[in-house]
Amino acid sequence: MLSSKVTCNSHGQDSSYFLGWEEYEKNPFDEVKNPNGIIQMGLAENQLSLDLLESWLQNNPQPAAFKNDKNQSIFRELALFQDYNGLPAFKNALVRFMSEIRGNTVTFDPNNLVLTAGATSANETLMFCLANPGDAFLIPTPYYPGFDRDLKWRTGAEIVPIQCSSLNGFRITKTALEEAYKQAENQNLKVKGVLVTNPSNPLGTSLSLHELDLLVNFISSKNIHLISDEIYSGTVFNSPNFISIMEVLKNRNLMNTEISKRVHIVYSLSKDLGLPGFRIGAIYSNDKLVVSAATKMSSFGLISSQTQHLLSEILSDRKFTQTYLSENRRRLKERHEMIVKGLQKSGIRCLQSNAGLFCWVDMRHLLSSNNFESEIELWKKIVYEVGLNISPGSSCHCSEPGWFRVCFANMSEETLVLAMQRVTSFVESTVKKNHMSRHQQLLNNRNSRRTKSLPKWVFELSFNQREITVDER
């Protein structure tokens, strides 16, 4: 008696990405109450700079108290109905902040901005605007596991992977793009566009200018769309600097062209400001029809007027935003170096990265066999025995077993130190077991060769002697 949506299994909740969260919630680490619990390293959350926001709120109590700069209450104004276009003050502040993150190399028109309840809503809304049920989007692997839910579950759209390889650091190539497009055609899927995360989740790398040019050329030749999910744009802490797809369009004189109308940006304050609970997301598009339709759809997931007001005040403080972005990047870089060095001491290397709240970690040498069954086996040991919830590469649709996403910005420094100690102990134990296993296998092989080389009568005599010994006992 229920709808097919209720009874279908296309949400992706049974992915190891979500299952790891469930196990964490059953036994969460607490340094006092549960020191042996599971440490959450599967959550890409930025808790490193919340103190900066808290300090701003202490020094600027009026916005949170719903008062203006004259200390007059604006509670009623915010509490009453607001249309779904959003508060102009907030949209203006948000586009200025987006430009600031990009070094003011590009500017954004607030009239092209659609507010949504987080990036999840923004991505799904774009799917509704750009694709019909059964149409496909191409996405480079590995990609964020939540896309299987966000892009497909309610829209009926399909995902075709662009297979990227560790041989070139999982970079996008023209060959990989063409192969994915051909694969979609072979499956009788109409390709409506490409979606990329820049910087990448889970890789923690920003797209190069070469890759961005490839993407623009590709969508131009195929007459399809490009969605650039840039929610980690403010987390770039190392060179090379972040390059937005809008900057590429500007430098190639493609603004206000038909190609620019097929390029759309998703943004959020969840990662850069560490405010996922505020549900601040946005779509930026040069296509007026997309903006109009997405604005109508946003009525199903609005941002509260109170939240918009508070954030407009914070983002309008240019001195604060400049200080915040600089200090947040410094802290991310410091924490990133800490986890990379901690893993290196255990003999584990990370993909060289320059952004994000996580590392893409290579544990292929710890697999019992080179397959995804062994990857899940290793993942379960890390969750249940080591007490760390990390995300296996298979949940990110990585084509190579043995890679894992490990988050580092959602915990204290002390907790990260403990996590690294657990990893070191686990690796040392695993290496020791593997060494003993190989040693035993060598002994067995030697004994087998010796037995085969003995004359038959010696073997029979030895066998009979053992029988006599057993009978006597």
Summarize the structure.
This protein is of the alpha/beta class and 473 residues long. 48% of the residues lie in helices and 12% in strands.
What is the helical fraction, as a range of percent?
40-55%
Sheet/helix structural class = alpha/beta
- Tell me the radius of gyration: 27 Å
CATH topology of the largest domain: Aspartate Aminotransferase, domain 2
Number of domains: 3
Family: Belongs to the class-I pyridoxal-phosphate-dependent aminotransferase family.
Keywords: Ethylene biosynthesis, Fruit ripening, Lyase, Pyridoxal phosphate, S-adenosyl-L-methionine
EC number: 4.4.1.14
GO molecular function, one term: pyridoxal phosphate binding
Summarize the SSE layout with pairings.
Layout: H1 4-7, H2 16-26, E1 39-40, H3 50-59, H4 61-64, H5 75-79, H6 88-101, E2 113-116, H7 119-130, E3 136-140, H8 147-152, E4 158-162, H9 174-186, E5 191-197, H10 209-222, E6 225-229, H11 245-251, H12 258-261, E7 263-268, E8 281-285, H13 288-297, H14 305-315, H15 318-345, E9 349-350, E10 358-362, H16 372-386, E11 388-389, E12 391-392, E13 403-407, H17 413-453, H18 456-472
Parallel strand pairs: 1-11, 3-4, 3-5, 5-6, 6-7
Antiparallel strand pairs: 2-8, 7-8, 9-10, 10-13, 12-13
Catalytic activity: S-adenosyl-L-methionine = 1-aminocyclopropane-1-carboxylate + S-methyl-5'-thioadenosine + H(+)
Protein name: 1-aminocyclopropane-1-carboxylate synthase
Keywords: Ethylene biosynthesis, Fruit ripening, Lyase, Pyridoxal phosphate, S-adenosyl-L-methionine
